[in-house]
From TrEMBL:
InterPro entries, sorted: Homeodomain-like_sf, HTH-type_TetR-like_transc_reg, HTH_TetR, Tet_transcr_reg_TetR-rel_C_sf, TetR_C
Region (Disordered): 1-27
UniProt cross-references to Pfam families, sorted A to Z: TetR_C_11 (PF16859), TetR_N (PF00440)
Organism: Streptomyces tropicalis
Upper taxonomic lineage: Bacteria, Bacillati, Actinomycetota, Actinomycetes, Kitasatosporales
Listed Low complexity bias regions: 1-11, 18-27
Record keywords: DNA-binding, Transcription, Transcription regulation
HTH tetR-type domain segment(s): 31-91
Entry protein name: TetR/AcrR family transcriptional regulator
């Protein structure tokens, strides 16, 4: 992992640019610095939670100069927001199986594997906990899920075109219905959902969608 001295780098957005973290795509060395810092921030969140996230500690773990970290992100909440941007951008794309049941099962399996992963599951718990008491983190978390729901919504729209669900079915609501019980299990029991739980969630959402439960409008 490359170290940085903390001196200014031409590709880094400097103070006063007005750009939120994650809205400017860095390249080259700056991209490597961002990746190292976000990886270190994720490690701290997974290991110790939001309360122990400290920019100086993240800089040390990432082998990056503290000046660079403070200049680029400026606050813990800005760093978490950028981490969520990166997570949304690098999440796996949706699976197209040709059927709604298959697509939703693939979505549920992806969520389940993520939450069962020792690092990712702990990371999500920490971010959700932080979002409960910090509006900027909450807004970043909402944007993260907006990206993921938008990625998977077309599978429901195609299902409507095939006649598997009624016209007017709210695609985003169906996608959320798949993952909602899985997150609920993680947050209320502290235990990641297993593969059978993911399969049940997908079947339930698919059956409800086919029955017209998620139809909106007149």
């Amino acid at each position: 992992m490359p170290a940085e001295s903390g001196t200014a780098h031409p590709a880094d957005p400097g103070p006063g640019t007005g750009a939120d973290p994650g809205t400017v795509r860095p390249g080259g060395r700056t991209a490597r610095v961002r990746a190292a810092v976000l990886r270190a921030a994720g490690d701290v969140l997974a290991e110790q939670g939001f309360a122990h996230l400290d920019l100086a500690d993240v800089a040390r773990r990432a082998e990056v100069g503290r000046t660079t970290v403070y200049r680029r992100w400026g606050s813990v909440t800005a760093l978490v927001a950028d981490l969520l941007v990166e997570m949304a951008e690098t999440s796996l794309p949706r699976t197209d199986t040709g059927s709604l049941s298959g697509d939703l099962a693939a979505n549920a399996a992806l969520v389940q594997r993520t939450l069962a992963d020792p690092r990712q599951g702990a990371l999500f718990r920490a971010v959700v906990a932080a979002a409960a008491c910090d509006e900027r983190t909450a807004a970043a978390l909402r944007r993260f899920y907006e990206v993921r729901v938008a990625e998977w919504a077309p599978c429901v729209e195609r299902a409507a075109a095939r006649g598997e669900v009624p016209p007017g079915t709210d695609a985003g609501t169906v996608v959320r219905a798949v993952s909602a019980p899985l997150y609920y299990t993680l947050l209320t029991t502290g235990t990641a959902p297993d593969a059978p739980a993911a399969a049940r969630a997908a079947r339930a959402a698919c059956a409800a969608a086919a029955a017209g439960v998620y139809v909106t409008g007149p």
